[in-house]
Specification:
By secondary structure, the chain is of the alpha/beta class. Helix content is 36%, strand content 24%. It is globular, with a radius of gyration of 24 Å. The two termini are 46 Å apart.
Amino acid sequence: MHSTHLLLEEPIRMASILEPSKPSFFPAMTKIVGTLGPKSRSVEVISACLKVGMSVARFDFSWGDVDYHQETLENLKTAVKSTKKLCAVMLDTVGPELQVVNKSGNAISLEADATVVLTPDQNKEASSELLPINFTGLAKAVKSGDTIFIGQYLFTGSETTSVWLEVTETQEDDVVCAIKNSATLAGSLFTLHISQVHIDLPTLSEADKDVISKWGVRNKIDFLSLSYTRHAEDVRQARDFLSKLGELQQTQIFAKIENIEGLTHFDEILQEADGIILSRGNLGIDLPPEKVFLFQKAAVYKCNTSGKPAVVTRVVDSMTDNLRPTRAEATDVANAVLDGSDAILLGAETLRGLYPVETISTVGKICAEAEKVFNHDLYFKKTVKYVGEPMTHLESIASSAVRAAIKVKASVIICFTSSGRAARLIAKYRPTMPVISVVIPRLKTNQLRWSFTGAFEARQSLIVRGLFPMLADPRHPAESTSATNESVLKVALEYGKASGVIKTHDRVVVCQKVGDASVVKIIELED
């Protein structure tokens, strides 16, 4: 990839490293997706998470039932109202995930050099010699010498909580494996991953469809995280399913790339999906360790050039049990930002971790520091060059707004939008300043009742780097007279001042539609 887009100042002034980090209203331009679970589902904890920078709440349906997640979501709604911080909702599907069924929940100790049998008979009790699994076709899918990994959230870096097995033989439906390392599997849910083997199960299972059509429709989810996306057709089928659910036609699909199959078809998946989640836990098993970073850089670069959000997972695993990340993890977060990631997704760290709020805060601070040395100028020039000429009308307006903001050193770009597309295009050029997306609601009717659009569009920009939405008054249309635009602009400027990003004598670049014309204007704030 391009090694030239790392640092803004060469060399970085050592004095700047010693300066304390300054707190701000927007903790970082890079967004943080937090997974809500046992340790992070109370109103108090969710409120604290929102205050320190969580902008998307992820609901992982590989555990917990609909009622449990509904209760968590109701707490999220209460927290959003009390903190006045918008938060989007992401539903994460289970997909063709293989799991060990441990009904008793007792810890299972596995010793190196011993053997263990994997069986599809889920009525049997899990033990050190026998592990029941939720898939009947394992014996047909694997062969002698294949590698199988089992653990909670897969390798966390601790070899004592995940186990590495090697297939020695198959006996009818059972698979006999040699245990390669000693480990204790604690809890009731262990994921099972077979390295580089195709699993013949649908990407969107019947259980997933049931959850989406009930829980997803009821709560008008903003994002669907499509686990184990392997082909573009997976995304097309998911979109077709959502389109039949009325309320979810606007839901964005984020393809979760978890294995070699998804990596092989990455380009076509990217074309179909609204965004990409790089599931590095599973990818780290399917790929040799020395190749993982290469895939991350290549995938994030492709997402950036196509203007689609890239989300990176598994960054601070050790913070599940510790208050501080390791040196490697802190550097990993910074490198994800320097690579161009839009968001960092926290899984076990917030779901069952002991320090969900501190984890979000720490990741946000690292992101903010990395953003200071991201070479925005070079990135802008490369993006313009990549887009080429002639540009589309919208692309031209977006790049002009960013160029103007860079030249006049504007403190913020304000973009009026109804679909959110213009604001996302501006964010694609990665301006150094925040982009406030003023979403103008549109009135629609189904002949029976009136309703406003806009809330979906506002929340869906909460996963895009540098984009901060606010909902405008629905009485102000997006394409209107200068008088109504001025009143909406005044509200946006007040919001910017209240959040501390705009001060007196600052310059602000405004991008809006007046009649049929798109206008980019520069205003200087007076006392």
